[in-house]
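Researcher: Structure prediction, please.
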Amino acid sequence: MNNARSKKWYDHLWIVELCYLFLGLFNILFAWLGMLFFCIPLLIAIFGGSKAYCNRYCGRGQLLGLLGDKLKLSRNVPPPKFLRSTWFRYGFLTFFMIMFGLMLFSTYKVFTGAPLSQTVTLLWVFKLPWQWADVSFVAPWAGQFAFGFFSVMLTSTVLGLVTMVLFRPRSWCVYCPMGTMTQGICKIRNGKKEKDYGRTGKEDSGTAETAG
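Model: Predicted structure follows.
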């Protein structure tokens, strides 16, 4: 008897994640599509009061699970406890949002006349030249936002891949800024304990929550 759950359409959203990354390599303006990955989880948390996106629709989480579990690219060991600690998760969220704000400020400067910087910044330090990208047919600020946003998406993907290899496949979900943000929104919106809303890192770190 086959007890495996039948596949749903949302079980294949990892393909969307891969397509997004590849499209961004060929045309940086596709980076704008990443705003969907940014806005949809927030809208679900704000209006639905749940972390359904993280639990069901996150293509990146599915991709990391596929690479780590199916292809055995993960060491599959629990990540360090500090990764799922409150201070680290909210500290990383704060840092991530500061860097996101700086990216928006760079876009604003180009909007007000500063020259366009055709580089993708990986891990906030390494500037990768992206001279083949043709953004001449859009406003310079739109191109600058695309470079900045793709930098954010590529950096978070690399971090996810590194922690996938070193620890459990979906260790990124433990400290993902979007997951932390939506979890906080659900906690505020519903007035219940934070652990009641989706992934808290227990599934991804391989630890069980103590009862009582």
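Model: The chain has one domain: 9-204.
Researcher: Thanks, that helps.
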